[in-house]
Design goal:
The complex is a heterodimer of chains A (674) and B (210).
Chain A lengths: L1 H10 L5 H14 L4 H11 L4 H5 L9 E6 L5 E7 L4 E6 L20 E2 L2 E2 L5 E9 L2 E11 L4 E6 L4 E7 L8 E5 L5 E5 L4 E2 L14 H4 E10 L6 E9 L3 E7 L7 E7 L8 H4 L5 E8 H9 L4 E12 L6 E12 L8 E7 L2 E6 L5 E6 L4 E6 H9 L3 E5 L2 E4 L1 H4 E6 L5 E6 L4 E6 L4 E6 L5 E6 L4 E5 L12 E6 L15 E7 L6 E8 L6 E5 L1 H4 L24 E5 L2 E9 L2 E3 L2 E6 L3 E8 L8 E5 L7 E3 L4 E6 L5 E6 L12 E7 L8 E3 L8
Parallel strand pairs in A: 14-19, 37-40, 39-45
Antiparallel strand pairs in A: 1-2, 1-35, 2-3, 4-5, 6-7, 7-8, 8-9, 9-18, 10-11, 11-13, 12-13, 13-14, 15-16, 16-17, 17-20, 18-19, 21-22, 22-23, 23-26, 24-25, 27-28, 28-29, 29-30, 31-32, 32-33, 33-34, 36-37, 37-38, 39-46, 40-43, 41-42, 41-44, 44-45
Chain B lengths: L2 H15 L7 E7 L2 E9 L4 E3 L4 H10 L13 H21 L6 H28 L20 E5 L2 E7 L1 H32 L6 H5 L1
Antiparallel strand pairs in B: 1-2, 1-5, 2-3, 4-5
Helix pairs in contact in B: 1-3, 1-5, 3-4, 4-5
The chains are: A mainly beta (674), B alpha+beta (210).
């Protein structure tokens, strides 16, 4: 199979695009048939010393964390590198019955949107927060592609702490891209939709795409100290599809770049309709100028309706705030704000090299990789070297901005990252390979096959000023025969590649969850030292917390019953509860009294219709339970906490509806009835 | 009394002051699931651990074997002991400043006796906690007691316990040694002085009385 691929790579780049696509499909198609030979190729690629390079001895820690998006799982998964060991799965946009995220009373509000409760999403791009162009290990920003949202994860706790909906967007793919010093996290819409300045419903048909459909680029301001997000303003942009973005660095720090497709503005069969123009655009936005315009009152206030959900650090309770307006900048009123630069059609990744001078655009249908120059862009702007204008936005001349083209790179270039040693690495979806090329002269230096159909790739810090150019991880879309079969649905596959030498070397295959669209990797020390071991019980401000067993109690308010429960090795207090009737709304507020490392307690009730709880030391979590049947119902701890975990259980007596049984509760020695 | 002795005695007093800055004794516990270790710190006026919550975690673990809760309120000694330390520091300072050579040895002796009483008390507490177990304890092993080592190490179920004096405790030892040193220096000085006195025409008090 390798030889076929090689042959294609050598002979096909100049062939017609349809032919290459067909070749790609054929390559994918034969993977299953020639599985064993593919395996042989894969193992032949790995050097004999590969094992020692990825071996992290028992009890030793990995060199790097990598945060991979879960795609349709709506989660982020965390792996150690170089071992590829999975460390954690963090629920973000999806409910997680395992720990109650999105089910318990505290975190339900995290998933509120203007569309109602949306307990799932398609999470594509993780981006680490940065200080002066370098990752700082404080937060991870991720996007929801489906119901437009941006979330912030706190890397002290590895928890989702904030989710903000993006108004006037329909498919938040081009997101969330931080500027050089984390001033803004920027989000562009994948689907343009009608945006009405009045905010009211307008009867618009699909034929009106060109005049009525608009894109938006949202600028989310990030609090320097706490990371809290705030939608500062949006820019209303032409009705294209906005795909990916990246902030500038060094000389280009004030700029952020976006790839666009469907500049044809087709509203149907985009597969064809959006692939007609030979060139689409790279949009360059001067975000510093945009912020200035917004602050000078150039922005118009549009009515909006979007949710902003935040988790309080001390009470662990999420609250939703509904926001009603958004400031919008119109490019035609803001000269110098935005420029369009032609690039080969339907580009995907836009990646700025560590020096901040070169913008690499990977066009999946292009036979070359264009590299644009930031300094030439500034000169072209200065000379007004425009070839036209779209909705008041100047279009620069391709040749005037171009620094050079990587010729015959491979098929289906998608995304590029950098090693900090003058080289770039581009993923090739169709020819299933990673191609290494030199930025200085655009020469291809090396190529390595990946298994199969790579989407994005990540080099730790590969999108920063100073990459940690030792490893590259390929995130592949197709797995087929790489692991033991698991029926029709397979894990996704990642490959770890050593890029420390002249030749790339395959080190490791490891399966991943969901579908990682992109990942970020960071030196472990930037995160590990700040990781908290538990929450402070003393600082717990949850209004229903019982901070010691004496505070444990049961209270009734009409048909609402609140159980202030405590959990500590190895008992729940109270563990005998009676006086509950069928149909009561019972809230179990369980506080984990432990102040020890790695002693969570679980809480589960037979027949609960939502989920269980997993309560970290010092925290309070609430499970709502509406008993449906009279009888004795067991409850217990679901996390094997101690030698007597199996004994950490109790009973609730549920009486038929209308019974006037008094509330009573106890643990061990009977307490007087309350 | 020589200036050196005065200084040494003041150092001895200061080294007793360490008791208020550092624990006197530490019990280190290690178990497979506690790679970070647990340390119980016994001070002259409190009981603590290497973290804010160690004592609570000690007690949680100990409740499985029915050991009584270890808390500062259980120990009256923690209230009295600081006064004894104040007394020894104060008296050392007075002896040093007023150069009361004769009181050096009694001070050392008293401090040594107080320390021995303290150690005996500590031993008794260890014995009491290790043997006075709740008969309803979930984990009962016939014949097993859980007396932590007084000094040195010992295995207690899954825990390996190591008990050692800490800086505060070593401070007492140093104070005793310094006191002894002062006593010896002064005895030598006294002897020299007496010899010098014998060679002079002046009468000593003893000679007059005789």
């Amino acid at each position: 199979m390798k030889s076929i691929a090689d042959k294609f790579t050598k002979t096909a780049p100049k062939a017609a695009m349809l032919l290459t696509l067909a070749a790609g499909l054929m390559l994918q198609g034969c993977g299953g048939v020639e599985g064993s030979s593919a395996n042989a190729v894969g193992s032949a690629q790995a050097d004999a010393d590969a094992a020692s390079k990825v071996y992290v001895a028992p009890g030793k820690h990995d060199e790097l964390y990598t945060f991979m998006s879960g795609g349709f799982s709506g989660q982020v998964s965390v792996y150690g590198l170089p071992s590829g060991r999975q460390l954690k799965v963090i629920p973000v946009f999806s409910q997680n019955p395992e720990n109650g995220y999105g089910y318990n009373e505290e975190t339900k509000a995290m998933l509120n949107t203007s569309f109602g409760f949306v307990p799932w999403d398609d999470l594509h791009h993780p981006k680490l927060s940065r200080t002066d162009g370098m990752t700082d290990g404080r937060w991870l920003f991720v996007n929801a592609n489906n119901t437009p949202r941006v979330a912030r994860l706190d890397l002290k706790t590895f928890e989702t702490v904030e989710i903000m909906e993006i108004p006037n967007s329909a498919g938040n793919h081009c997101s969330p891209y931080p500027t050089n010093d984390n001033e803004y996290v920027v989000a562009g819409t994948r689907f343009s939709v009608p945006v009405n300045p009045g905010g009211e419903y307008e009867d618009i048909s699909f034929d009106q795409y060109k005049e009525k459909f608009k894109g938006t680029i949202s600028f989310i301001k990030v609090d320097k100290e706490h990371g809290d997000m705030n939608l500062d303003f949006q820019i209303l942009v032409p009705g294209f599809d906005y795909d990916l973005a990246n902030g500038g660095k060094g000389p280009s720090s004030d700029w952020i770049f976006f790839t666009t497709y469907n500049t044809e503005q087709a509203s149907t069969l985009k597969e064809i309709g959006a692939s007609q123009n030979d060139k689409d655009f790279l949009a360059a936005i001067n975000w510093k100028l945009a912020a200035k315009y917004a602050n000078e009152g150039k922005a118009k206030e549009f009515p909006a309706h979007y949710y902003h959900n935040k988790l309080d650090e001390k009470s662990h309770i999420a609250k939703s705030e509904i926001k009603k307006k958004v400031r919008v900048l119109l490019p035609e009123e803001c000269p110098g704000l935005i420029y369009l630069i032609p690039v080969p059609k339907s580009p995907h990744g836009i990646d700025v090299d560590p020096t901040g001078e070169f913008m690499t655009v990977s066009g999946k249908l292009a036979s070359i990789i264009p590299v644009h120059s930031f300094s030439k862009m500034l000169k072209a702007i200065e000379k007004k070297d425009y070839i036209g204008e779209i909705e008041g936005i100047p279009v620069l001349r391709y040749e005037s901005v171009l620094a050079g083209e990587v010729k015959e790179p491979g098929l289906g270039p998608l995304h590029t990252e950098f090693d900090g040693k003058g080289n770039a690495y581009t993923s090739m979806f169709v020819s299933s390979e990673v191609v290494k090329w030199r930025i200085k002269d655009f020469q291809v230096l090396d190529r390595i096959p990946v298994y199969y159909s790579i989407g994005h790739l990540v080099i730790p810090g590969g999108d920063t000023k100073k990459p940690y150019g030792k490893y590259l991880v390929a995130m592949n879309k197709i797995t087929k025969d790489r692991y033991l079969p698991t029926g029709p649905e397979l894990a996704q596959s990642a490959q770890l590649i050593d890029i420390s030498g002249d030749k790339m070397k395959l080190l490791l295959d490891f399966p991943t969850i969901g579908e990682p669209h992109y990942a970020q990797a960071i030196e472990a020390k930037k995160v590990a030292d700040k990781s908290v071991k538990m929450y402070s019980l003393e600082e717990n401000t949850h209004p229903y917390a019982a901070k010691n067993e004496k505070e444990a109690r049961v209270e009734r308010k009409g048909n609402e019953v609140h159980v202030y429960m405590t959990a500590i090795r190895s008992h729940l207090t109270p563990d005998n509860i009676e006086g509950i009737n069928v149909g009561d709304e019972v809230y179990f507020h369980v506080t984990n009294l432990e102040q020890d490392w790695d002693v969570p307690h679980g809480f589960a009730i037979m027949g609960a219709n939502n989920a269980e709880l997993l309560i970290m030391p010092g925290a309070t979590q609430t499970l709502k339970w509406v008993p449906q049947k009279a009888g004795i119902v067991p409850m217990y701890c679901t996390d094997f906490c101690s030698a007597l975990h199996q004994e950490m259980q109790g009973y609730i007596k549920v009486s038929p509806k209308g019974t006037k049984a008094p509330l009573a509760f106890s643990t061990g020695a009977k307490k007087p009835r309350s | 009394m020589k200036t050196t002795s005065t200084i040494l005695l003041l150092i001895a007093a200061a080294s007793l002051g360490l008791l208020f800055l550092f624990p006197m004794w530490k019990i280190y516990l290690q178990a497979p699931q506690y790679p970070e270790g647990l340390e119980m710190h016994i001070w002259v006026n409190k009981i603590s651990g290497n973290t804010e919550f160690t004592l609570q975690n000690f007690n949680i673990l100990n409740h499985y074997i029915g050991m009584a809760k270890i808390e500062a309120d259980s120990f009256k000694e923690l209230v009295y002991m600081p006064y004894f330390v104040y007394f020894f520091i104060g008296s050392a300072v007075l002896i040093a400043l007023f150069r009361l050579r004769k009181l050096v040895l009694p001070w050392v002796g008293l401090l040594a006796v107080a320390s021995l009483v303290g150690l005996a008390d500590f031993y008794m507490w260890l014995h009491k906690f290790g043997t006075n177990l709740d008969p309803q304890a979930p984990i009962k092993i016939p014949g097993m007691t859980y007396i932590p080592p007084f000094i040195g190490s010992k295995d207690l179920l899954n825990f390996h316990a190591l008990s050692l004096p800490a800086i505060g405790g070593l401070g007492i030892g140093l104070a005793i040694l310094l006191g002894l040193l002062v006593y010896l220096l002064e005895r030598k000085a006294g002897r020299l002085e007496r010899e010098r006195n014998n060679n002079t025409p002046y009468y000593t008090l003893k000679n007059i009385q005789a």
